[in-house]
Design brief:
alpha/beta; TIM Barrel; Arc Repressor Mutant, subunit A; 2 domains; 3-stranded antiparallel sheet; 16 helices
Length: 386
Amino acid sequence: MGRHIYVHNPFCARKCPYCGFYSEEGTDRTEEYYRCAGIETQLWASGNIEDADDGIDTVYFGGGTPSFPDSGLICGLLNTIKSSFGIKDDAEITIEINPSSLTKEKAEAYRAAGFNRVSVGVQSLSDSVLKTLGRLHDSAGAKDALAMLRDAGFTNISADLIIGVPGQTAEGVISDIEQFVSLGVKHISTYSLTLEEGTPFYSRYTGRLEDLVPPEDERAMYHASRRFLASCGIIPYEISNSACAGFRSVHNGAYWEGSEYYAIGAGAHGYTGGIRYGHEDSVDEYIRIMSKAKPGDKIPEGLIYVEEQMGPEDRMREYPFLRLRTSEGIEVDVFERKFGRDVHEVFGDAIKANISRGLLEDKDGRIRLTESGLDFADAVIRDFLG
């Protein structure tokens, strides 16, 4: 069963125009929501005593903007997770925060409650780029937030960086990274701007692609940023993530290993008992269903829906999709131990075809993307999925 927990906070002060994740503006129902999330936590734990006995490896509060609601609600839910499941002494416990909603008091409350890792939605340290992205903070506000977190005792600090934003330059991206390093950031997630259907950015730029950064320039930014990160000792270990030694995201690493995890809250997706499942993207529906539940009940009907039932063959077929995102790629001996098959026997055609295109390499017991392959990762992965 799951050794990891993801909690979705669906509340934001204002939805960013490029964001395709589920969230709602305002805090009118936060207290009801977190009361229900606490009950859901207890329901999952009550049916899985083996996890409660052994403890949870990672907890991740994502969103939305987890730093937007009252910190007492966030910390209260973490305490419920601790008392319901138990958390290992060395567990990684992460909260996403936005600079615009962080205060000194919140930072101190998170640290006191047991959070030991923060992921900060900076996105850029250029005021013009932040304005284009519709962020509520400016560069000074982002730096203030990072200082608050350091002062509160956080040493494991990650920052998000978006590249390919209209008006952005490669030099600007490198400057952002230099400043992150000087501000004590140990992990950087570098995401390329994408147009998510249904977002204001999708409406704004569809049909006006000339206003976007040309794909070849965006790719140049991406590769330049990875090289510069490595030169700073922040080593790329996944398509979008780089970290100093000892600061990789354990929680995200569990995803890329195909590990199971619990999901709590509206819009959250989980994977337990071989079933990938989701919650509807609706705070109202979540509260309606959960308000009738009480500790000791079974998971209420309608709370989750099954996305996929994963059998052994499904897990084997999915594995390359997850592992090819990482710098280690598919380790041949690990694959054979997990699935009892030779990866070359199962995926020989996909491996050979992409090696011939220069997109994969197969050496030292690992099959992984080349630098060119990083630009065509989706196409390579589709070959493995059949």
